[in-house]
Every structure is written in structure tokens, then in C-alpha cells.
Amino acid sequence: MSDQRSVLTGEHFVNGDWACAEGGLAAGCKFFAGYPITPATEIAERMSKRLPEVGGVFIQMEDEIASMNAILGASWGGSKSMTSTSGPGFSLMMENFGLGIMTETPCVLVNVQRGGPSTGLPTLVGQADMMQARWGSHGDYEVIALAPQSPQECFDLTIEAFNLSESYRIPVLVMSDEVVGHMTEKVVVPKPEDIHLVPRRKPSVPPEEFKAFQPREDLVPEMCTAGEGYYVHVTGLTHNERGYPVVTAEAQDRLVRRLVDKIRLNADRIIRVQEENLADADVIVVSYGISARTAKSAVAMARAKGYRVGFLRLITIWPFPEKRIRELARKVSAFVVPEINFGQIAREVERCAGGRARTIAVTHAGGAIHHPGKVLSVIEEAIRVKSGSGLVEETLVLR
Amino acid sequence: MGALIEDAVIDNETMVERFLRMDRLPHIWCPGCGIGTALRSTIEALADMDIPQEEFAVVSGIGCTARVAGYLKLDSFHTTHGRSIPFATGLKLANPKLKVFVFSGDGDLFAIGGNHFIHAARRNMDLKVICVNNFIYGMTGGQVGCTTPTHSKTSTSPYGNYEPPFNLCFLAAAAGAVYVARWTTFHVRQIKRSVQEAFAKRGFTFIEIISPCPTVFGSRNGFPTGLDMMKYFKANSLTVAGADPRDVEIEMGGKLKVGKFVDNERPSFQDRLSEMWGDLGLEESRIVEAE
Ligand SMILES: Cc1ncc(C[n+]2csc(CCOP(=O)(O)OP(=O)(O)O)c2C)c(N)n1
User: Fold this and answer.
1) What's the mean pLDDT when you consider all of chain A?
2) Kind and range of the H or E run holding A285
3) Which of A147, A269, A343, B116 could cross-link A289 (Cys pair, CB 3.0–4.6 Å)?
4) Ligand 1 center to residue B136 CA distance, Å?
5) What stretch of H or E contains A384?
6) Is the N-terminal amide bond of A207 cis, ω within 30° of 0?
7) CA quadruple A52, B123, B200, B2: dihedral positive or negative?
């Protein structure tokens, strides 16, 4: 349980970035390393103020590469650790995000997305790092990424991200966006005793027997901390259960397959979605983050007009709720997917729909959120035109 | 030379077994390579200090030298190329009790990782950095680096290097390291002493160990064996204690100035942090037991 100082129990009127910071603190985060970048800077600023108050350490590093590495080091040093960034910094973190995946190091990385590519739109919204979150580091692996749609969820999902990172020994991504990060709303912070926290899985055997990469039944290994006499070896090289490098195809298969499976086989436990009006739905609007809010009003408008439209909000983006989309694809004629990119998640939906239902990407280059009226017009179009399958893109219509 | 080596070798399988992961031997280093010598002197220093073994942690980047982390029986972290220092920074700040040292190559610490080095030195982060400088990228087969002497040949400077190298000791001193020393792998006792002095200090310390790399550097530059290079070190090393770090650049064929160049005091990152916040209560907040 976190202590009183770390949990500002009560009602606050604050923005999403503030809430990410407070969520981290409530989860027991005691180390933050970061580098200023709009629109994520407020998280670092909040952490620099708050961490010393709760006995933690804030450090502003020389860049995001350093920040990512510092939080990995801090995690092995025994602190729950976190960083935050946006597009350009997210790119810089990718190599060592992979180090965190390979070394199974729990920590949390918040990306408050802005418009890209490159410097793009520093102060304006985007959701175009969703695939970078999935595949941005080299090699093959699975990730966990959550997408908050409100300041309240920034708080809640940052805690959840810490819990998932400890449960699965993996760096977890919180994929926020500029609008959610900068929007001010009510955030309710519960009492410390009402916040569920997943503790680190410490070794259950003495140091002589302990293997830091020996999976338990759920494929996740226990974790020791430096300084406790375990003499752990941690490497980004392909390694065996003891952590020692083994550069063979067999060792690679054993390790990487487990890293993938520990998420894939636990996907049902990890994935969270919000569903509304699916029972009679003919068209389902699938969305996440800030776009889910515009999508939801579009769905309400469509319902008011008597259309049988459902709403599926992805809270967990990765692992992707494949099973659920597959099931739903058998029942509906189309998915409408508004997001602030050119169809990154729509393509996932299309893949899972497998030709059984159409997928219509409601695209947006970034810099603003979708207008609900435009999403509504795509919904109406989806209802009118029943035929066809595969991915259709509705960008041009929407301009 | 004989006397130096004899001294260093007294005993001690026990010492070696205590500090090396014997189950990981044989190591990957080439015959004549100096990394083993640098490691040996470091182990002697660790063994002779009154610090419990579990309090040491070693962090390395990527390269031949960086493989040291995989052989040391300590909490050991073999990170990514150039990133040992920020990783070590997080490790140290999360658990200030740890004696964290970084053991890595010149390319790792000063080319790809150079920015982290100068900032850790500026912060006076409590890290002990040991750099094996073999004048080249060893692991990738001998490319020119930021420490390759002008005119030296490498696989990517086939006509001779047309860039000047970094003077690592000057760089470390200018960036704020409180302890800076340079030795060659010929100076096994001096390395040991420097490592101990570094661990005795608070703040950011830097030890450069010039090392033979007969396979990819020596073979192209007139030192086909490790011994040839050691003879060069022996004949040309000039100990200049307290030399102005500006004056210790390395030129192949010239004198190789070695010694302790900087040994001063200024508040470390941790000192300033505790000055402002007291002990931060970090001890209680660390994840020691499962809750
Ligand atoms: C990001 C990245 N770039 C390049 C490499 C390839 N690489 C591996 S080791 C190395 C050079 C190591 O040289 P140095 O640090 O001088 O160590 P040495 O091998 O000489 O001991 C390089 C370039 C890498 N692993 N990662």
C-alpha cells in the first residue's frame, strides 16, 4: 500500500499530465527520469515537485535515451520507476525500451502523443505513435500499452500500468495524447487503502538457487534487486534462465518465444475494453484515447436517429483485443474506426475482422480531434452501404 | 616488468573464484588483449577493499570491454551500446548504498555514449568509470573511433586516420570528474591503487586504461602481438603525477603520459540531494521484500 504522502486522496480539478504523475506516485513510483518535451513536460514538472516530498528521486537527464536507461537501472536498484515523453523522445527511447523488454524490467513510460512525423506539431494532438508503441524497437516482442481518454483515466491507468509492469516484468506504455494530457477535468484520487497495487515478485528461493530469468508457471520470472547478494547478470544479449548470454538459435527461440508468450497467453487477463450497445449493433465504432470521446458522441447521435450502432473502446491497445473483434465481426456489417492517424488501429481491426465485416478508417493527420458530426456521417455511410469488406478509408470525405 | 607481474599474481585462485563467474569461462577475449589485465587489477582492488561483495554493482555498455560485466560475479548489467552511464545513474540513485562502477570501452563511453559521460561528470554522479582504451572499435572488427590516434590505420581509415583523437583525461577533468587517472595495462599495481582511490572518493571518477588490441589495432599499426604493445607501453610511458590534463594527449610514437592527473573534492549529486532533502527516506521506499 502506498503511504498518505504519495496519494492525494480527494477530488481535484486537474489535467491529464498531472494525473499521470499522481497516478505514478500513488502506485509507489519513487524514481522519475525525463527530458522536457511538449506536451508531456507537465508530468516531469509535477514529478520534480512531488518526488522529493515522498522520498523519491527526480532527475532530468541529458536526453530521452538516458531517461529510458535510467529508469531501467532504477528498477533493478529497487525503485518503481517511470518516464514520460512525446513523439521525438519516444523515438529516442525505442532502443532501450527494447532493452527493458529483453531484460524483463518493470517500469512505466508515458507517451503524450503529438502530431508527427519529426517535430511535427509540438503543441497539438496526434495518435500516430500507436504502431511505434507496438513495433518501434527492433526485433520481435509483445508489449502492453494502455490508452487513457480522460484525466481520471490518466490517473487510473498509470497505476494499472505499474501493476501490469510488475505482474509481467515488462515496461508498460501509457499512450496518452495532447488533448487528454492538457484537458482539465475532475480527478478522484481514492484513499491509499482502496488502491490495488501489485508488489514486485521477489525471489522465493535463496540466492544460490535463484535464476532471474527462470519463468514461473505464468511464464514470468521472479525478480531480485541489486545489492541483495543474488549476483544477477542482466544482459540485452539473448540469454539463458541464469541470465548468461547464449548466442544460438535454440536459446533465442526459448527466450523470445517466452517473452512473446508471457503476454499472448495472458492476453485475456491483460486486455480491458469498454462496450456499449453491442447487443443489437449492426455497425460498431471502435476507438480509443481522445478519439473515443468524439466517437462516443457520434454513437449517441446515431442512436438518437435510430441506427443500431455500438461502441467499443479500447482501454488496452496492446495486446490487441483480437478475439473480441473476431467475435463481433461475425455479427456486424462494419467497424468504423476514428483515430488521429491514417488507420494504424483500423488496420488491426481489419485484420481481425478477416473479411467478415468492413472496416472504415476515419483518418485524421493530427492537430485537432475528429468532429463527432463527421464520425456520424461515416457511420451513416456504413449503414447505407452494406456491401464489401476490407479496409476503406474515409479521410477525403471528411475534409 | 617481472617484478610488477609477480607481485600482482600472488595467490590467488580464491580471489579470482570469488569475483569471477567461473561457469562462464573461457572468456571471449583474444590472446594478447589487455582487457583481462585491466579486469585482473580491478578485481584485486575490489578484493582488497573493506566493502561487502554484494554492495558492488557493475554496469557496462557493448563491446569487447563491456563483456567484463558478464564475467564479474557481482550484480552485473550489460546494457546497450553507449548507455551504461545513464543505466548506472538510475541504479545508483535507486539504491545509494550500492558501489556502482562502469567498465566499458572507449567507443562505448566516448563516441556513442559521450554525452552521458560528460553529464554524469558534470553532475558529479557517484559512479566509478573505468575505460579500457584500445584506440579502436574492437568488437566490430577494428573501425576508427574517437580515440584512434591520428594517422593510425583501421578498417575504416585504411589510409590512416585523418581526425584527431579525444584526450579522454582532459575531457573528464573539464566535465567535472573529481578523480582522473591514466595507466596502461603495463601498470597493473597502479591500476589497482587507482581503482581503490576512486572507490574511496565520493562523486564521479575516471580511470583510463590504455590497452593492447593486437588483433585489430596492433596488427595494422606495427604491434602485431600484445607483447609488442606492452613493450611500447614500457618504453614510452612517462608518469607525470598531477600533470595538467590538457598536456596529456596521445600521439602514437610519442611519450605516453600516465599517472593521476586530478584528485579533488566537490559535492556529489547525492551530497547536494541530501543537503536539500535530507535522507529522502529512500531506504524505506525501496522494494526489498514483497509487500
Ligand atoms: C546502437 C549500436 N550501434 C552499433 C553497435 C555495434 N557495436 C558493437 S560494439 C561496438 C564498438 C565497441 O567499441 P569500444 O567501445 O571501443 O569497445 P571494444 O570492443 O574496443 O572494447 C559497436 C560499434 C551496437 N551494438 N549498437
Assistant:
1) 96
2) strand A283-287
3) A147
4) 10
5) helix A372-384
6) no
7) positive
Residue of A nearest to B274 (CA): A52
Residues of chain B with pLDDT under 50: 1-5, 8, 290-291
Of B141 and A395, the one with more pLDDT = B141
Same fold, A4-194 and A274-395: yes
Q: Which amino acid would we find at residue A294?
A: T
Instruction: Quote the ligand 1 centre to B63 CA distance (angstroms).
Output: 5
- Whether the per-residue pLDDT at A16 is higher than 60: the answer is yes
Instruction: For A217-270, write each residue's pLDDT tens digit.
Output: 999 999 999 999 999 999 999 999 999 999 999 999 999 999 999 999 999 999
How far A339 CA lies from chain B's nearest CA (Å)?
Answer: 34
Spatial CA neighbour of B91 closest among A226, A259, A140, A329 = A226
* Cell 572518493 sits on residue: B201
pLDDT in tens, A271-291: 999 999 999 999 999 999 999
CATH assignment, A4-194? 3.40.50.970
* Ligand 1 lined by B63 (C-beta under 6 Å): yes
> Closest to B90 (Cβ–Cβ): which among A65, A77, A234?
A77
- What are chain B's domains? 32-279 (3.40.50.970)
Protein residue whose Cα sits closest to atom 25 of ligand 1? B81
Cα–Cα distance, A328 to A108 (Å, whole number): 32
pLDDT at A4: 79
Residue-level pLDDT at A148:
98
Q: Where are the beta strands (DSSP E) in B6-98?
A: 56-60, 75-78
What amino acid is encoded at B67 in this protein? R
A165-190 pLDDT tens trace: 999 999 999 999 999 999 999 999 99
Burial A105-125 (b: 16+ CB within 10 A, else e): bbbbbbbbbbbbeeebbeebb
Question: If you average pLDDT over residues A316-340, what whole number do you get?
Answer: 98
State pTM to two decimals. 0.96
The mean pLDDT value for A4-19 works out to: 96
On the question of pLDDT at A388 being above 80, the answer is: no
- For residue B277, the model assigns a pLDDT of 84
Domain boundaries, chain A: 4-194, 274-395
CA dihedral B173, B179, B185, B186 (to 10 degrees): 100
**Are residues A336 and A398 in contact, defined by beta-carbon separation less than 8 angstroms?**
no
* Secondary structure (3-state) at B238: strand
What is the phi/psi pair of residue B97, to 5°?
Answer: -70, -25
Q: Does A201 touch chain B (CB under 8 A)?
A: yes
Ligand 1: does its nearest atom lie under 6 Å from the Cβ of B140? yes
Domain spanning A274-395: which CATH class is it, in words?
Answer: alpha beta
In angstroms, the separation between the Cα of residue B284 and the nearest Cα of chain A is: 9
Residues near A163 by beta carbon (within 8 Å), at least 6 away in sequence: A27, A196, A197, A198
Give the pLDDT confidence score for residue A386 in this predicted structure: 72
| ipTM > 0.90, yes or no | yes
d(C-alpha B102, C-alpha B93), whole Å: 15
Cα–Cα dist B47/B50, whole Å: 8
How much is the pLDDT for A39?
Answer: 98
Task: Verify whether ligand 1 is closer than 6 Å to residue B167 (CB atom).
Answer: no
- pLDDT tens digits for range A116-157: 999 999 999 999 999 999 999 999 999 999 999 999 999 999
Q: Considering only CB atoms, which chain A residues are within 8 Å of B290?
A: 199-202
